[in-house]
Structure formats: C-alpha cells, structure tokens
Amino acid sequence: MQLPDFLMALPALDVPFPEDVVESRAMRTDDALLVFFIFHKDFELPPHAHKAQWGTVLQGRIELTIAGDTQTYGPGQIYNIPSGAEHGGSITAGTIVIDVFEESDRYPLKA
Q: 81: which strand partners?
C-alpha cells in the first residue's frame, strides 16, 4: 500500500527517529495531532507515556504493551492508549498506521 500523493504532501514531523526507519505525515488542529506513520524498517518503540492516543493499523503489524497488557494489532484493528498509560512495543517493517494524539503539539512539524 502506498499513501496517495495528497497525503504524502502533508508536512513531516520532527520525531526522534531516523527517517529511513519511520516516515511521518501530519495534520494538526488546535485539539489534536493526526499522523500517518510509515515504518520502513522493524522498529522498537521504547516504553513511554503521554496524553491520550488512538490509532489504527492500515497495513502490517504492531505489538503494543499498554499499561502492562500486550496485544498484537493488524490491518483494521484499533488501539486506544489512555492518558498517562505507559506503552511501548515492536512494529514490523512495512507497517502503516494512523495515530491521533490528544496533544496537538506532541511533535513539532518539520520546517
């Protein structure tokens, strides 16, 4: 699956991960940050916490541990991370997800 050109034309985020590993395209409102994440290589997401996050897998697979509960998510499945819940996991190369963050300023847009 390849995202359409108009989505790939959205701005990228300044995330603390190499762009050859994970690519991003984002839309921001005053209330939330919507991000398309494209994982080019297998990725280990270290445990961390922040405000609420909701996501869905478009392609590929994610194994997430959310507040001590480990689940595997595939295409069409959603995950909901409550505010303050520690979470982390592993993401398979080729995975594409949509994540929506409660914090509209969770990551800055690249200039």
A: 53
Q: Are 55 and 97 in contact (CB under 8 A)?
A: yes
**Residue 17: C-alpha distances to residues 5, 14, 40, 72 (Å):** 23, 9, 12, 22
- How far is residue 40 from each of residues 30, 81, 95, measured CA to CA in Å? 30, 23, 8
Question: pLDDT tens digits for 7-24?
Answer: 999 999 999 999 999 999
Whether pTM exceeds 0.85: yes
Q: Report the C-alpha gap between 8 and 65 in whole angstroms.
A: 29
CB 45 within 8 Å of CB 88? yes
The two structure tokens encoding residue 110: 């690249």
Residue ranges with strand state E in the chain: 22-28, 33-39, 43-48, 53-59, 62-66, 69-73, 78-81, 87-91, 96-101
Query: Which residue has 């979470």 as its token pair?
Result: 87
Q: Look at the chain and count its residues.
A: 111
Q: How far apart are the first and last CA of the chain?
A: 27
